[in-house]
Each structure stands twice: as C-alpha cells, then as structure tokens.
Amino acid sequence: MIAAARLVLIALTRFLVGGHARWVGSEPTFEQRIYFANHGSHLDTIVLWAALPDALRSETSPVAARDYWGKGRLRRFVALDILGCVLVERQAPADSDPLAPLTAALAEGRSLILFPEGTRGDGSSIMPFKSGLYNLANTHPGVQLIPVFLDNLARAFPKGAYVPAPISCAARFGAPLRLRQGEERQAFLTRAREAVATLGRPGEV
Amino acid sequence: MDDRRIIILLAGVIGILLAGSLASFVLSRRAHSEAMQTTVRNLESRVKAWWVMVAIFAAAFLLGPTVTLILFALTSFYCLREMITLTPTRPADHRAVATAFYVFIPLQYWLIFDEWQTVFAIAIPVYAFLLLPVLTVLAGETDHFLERTAKLQWGLMLTVYCISHAPALLILDIPGHEGENFLWLFFLIAVVQLSDVLQYVFGKLFGRHKVAPRISPAKTWEGLIGGGLSAALVGAGLFWITPFSPLQAGGMALAIVVAGFCGGLVLSAIKRSLGAKDWGTMIEGHGGALDRMDSVTFAAPIFFHLTNYFFVP
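Above: the input entities. Below: the structure tokens describing the complete assembly.
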C-alpha cells in the first residue's frame, strides 16, 4: 500500500513537473549526506525526494516543518508514511533543542534533506540561511553537505496556489561543501547559500 | 474500415524504419569524423522518435478514436509544458497557466470527442483568449502584462488548438468514405514527417542556398524544393487512402509541405527568441516533443480546413 502510494506520487511528479536530477558536481552515492536546497514551493520536498535514485531515497529523510506537514491526516500520511519525513518545530521552546530529531536521524545513519531558508521564498532570490545547517556541519563533520538548486518550482506551484501547474522542474546537485577549520557561522552560511545560488545560474557551472 | 489498407501501410512503414535503423547502425560503425558522428546521432534520434510514433499510431488505430484523442491530448500537454517551461511566466500567471492546462486541453479534445465542431473552432481563439487575461489581471501584476498574456495564448494556440486539428480529422463526414478517417490522419502525419526528412536529406546532399540563415541554418532552398516535391509525389501516390484523386492528393500534400515548412521556421524563431536551441535543452535530455511536432502545428489546421471546405458536403 505504502509502496504503491510512493510509486503513484513519483509517477505524478514526473508527469506534471518532471523533476529529474542533474548531478553536476557530485554523484549519487551511499555516503551519508545532508542535501540542502533553496525553498520556493511546498513541492520542493517531494521533488527533491523523487529526484533521488530509488536506493538512496529509502535512506534519506526530508526535514519538514511540523506546523505544515504535521497538520491534517493526508499531509501527515504523505509526510510521515510516504516521504519518511523528520518533523521539526519552527517555533521551538527556548529550553529545547530543535535539532534533536535531526541528530537522532543522523545517528541512525540516515541522510537528510534540509531547506535552510526555513520558509518558502517567492523564487526570485534565496533568503539568508538559518543556523541549523552550520550546527549540524559542526557536530557531524563526517556527513557530506551537498548543495541542491531546485529550478522552476516557485513557478510550478507558487505560494497560495491550489494545484501545481505542469512546468518542467529540475534538481541540480552540486559539489560537496566542507566546514573549514575555524570558519565562522555567518561566513559558512553565506558560502553555503552562494553554493546553491551558483547552481541556479547554469552558465557558470 | 478496409483493414487491409492499414496493414499494408503499417508493413510499409515498419519496412522503411527497419531500413532506417539498419542504415544508422551501419553508419554509426563507420562514422569517424566529428561532423559525421553528429549527423548519425541526429539520424538515430529521428529513427527512434519515428518508432515511438509508429507504435503510438498502431496502438491508436487498434484501440479506437477515444485512445487516439487521449494520445493527442497528451502530446498537446507535453508540447505546452515545454513551451511554458521556456517562457518566463511568473507566479502571478499561475492561475491562467493552470487553467490553460487543466481546463482548455481536456475541453478542446472533449469537443472533438463530442463532435461539436462549431465550439471546437472557437473555444481557444475566443473563450480562452478572453478568459485567461482576466485570470491574470486578477493577480494584480501589470508588469509585462501584454507579453505574458500573449505568450500563454500563443502557446495554447500552437500546441493545443493547432495540434488538435490532426485528430479532428476523425469527425469529418465524407460520403462514400465512411470509417476511413484514420487513414487521412495517417496521410497528414506521414507527409509531414516524410517532408521533414526528405528536406533534410536533399539539404545535406545538394543544399547551397540558405532560406533563413539566422533562424534555421539547416534549411536550404534545394532541400525545400527537392524534399518538398518528393514528399508531394509520395502524397499523390498515397491517394488510395484518401478521398482525393491522385492530383488532388498531390496538391493536398504540397499544401501540407508548405505549411509544415512555415511551421518549422516560425517555431524555430520562437525558440530562438526564448533563448534556446532545442525545445529539449532546458529539460536536458528530456522533452523535445515540440521539436517533432513543429511542422504539424501549422500543417494540421490547413489540411483539416482544406479537406472540410472542399470535400465535406
């Protein structure tokens, strides 16, 4: 049942928006990874998940906001049962660690899909990255950080739309990024954001 | 329906394609120079696309008009998707774009299914033309409004309205030729595709004078005239699958050739103005359906209306 639902979701994604993977700076391998991407649409999570090869997809958990994906039975079913998401609190209480579910998934050896902007933009520019990516890079030096640019998704399914329009989208996977020795939080986040933005200008890759 | 004719046709086409596949296989082993390899790759991708087309055609014929309509609707869907992908629409256009896909594609093909010819002829040029800009204007963004609206309407006209005239041949009633409509559709597609490939071959062999070097450097006068006339001759030779006399069939084929040529030229210009070389390049390795349908977009409505005007009482 779940496997069939997965196939339907992938088939629907291919039919409507394509969403094929372009491995321009890295190859799909079994190394533990955090894929981080720009965020312009609710489809981002599904498209990036569907772009991964079958074998990697089952090892990878998208990180999703509990206040959206945790609401309603259908969304919960898609997020938890089909996509295998890790849900996080965007407004975590001050005394708790919002990254705890992510750290737990990484400890199980799973890879993650992360949208470090924290919320959806309008697709015209990438907003500043939140600190989570830096904190994870700091505590998990063995995990590869792969920048991903999701092309066209804000056009296919912009904020406030009810149905996705059929516009071909692509997921471009770039070269792994490393936290440098003693690199400051802000410098690293800017560099990570720039890595995603560069992938969005294909002429330069 | 005289089943033997379609079997003869399919056998003939499969024979030609087998020869094409064999030729591209032999050539690929002999091609050493860079230019030669490019030519062979082009041949291979064309032959492959034709195999797919023939398979689709055979399936459509075996499974009936409804399946034929669904297959053409899907073709329109993919072509429109390619066009909109390359066109810089904005989030504010989303409602109009979604309506074009989810309302007007099914509507246009349902109107053929329903044989409602008057509305079929005006649904997109009148109702979509008036409705889509209203949906766009409600989003409240006036920046480049005219361009955005025009691009969507053009896309819809070319990829849905024009292409839908090919399967619309299935609803024409010509006394004495009942049940033969599928063969006319075959005639249209076969002449368009033959004309494309013969122009290419004649152009490669004898091409000297370019027709429109800035738009489509591969198109030459020698290719157009040699390939076009040969395709018209083949069309005349196919008169036995049409309601036309041999001379009329030749004339119809010539009209298809000229319209198809113009379609190829205009779509190349659109493609270039959108900054792409192939309809498939942005969709690296995928798509490119419009590259194969560009001639059909112009040839289908012309052939449909000529047939309807002169042969339907």
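Note for the figure: Strands of chain A lie at 18-23, 33-37, 60-65, 86-88, 111-114, 144-151, 169-173.
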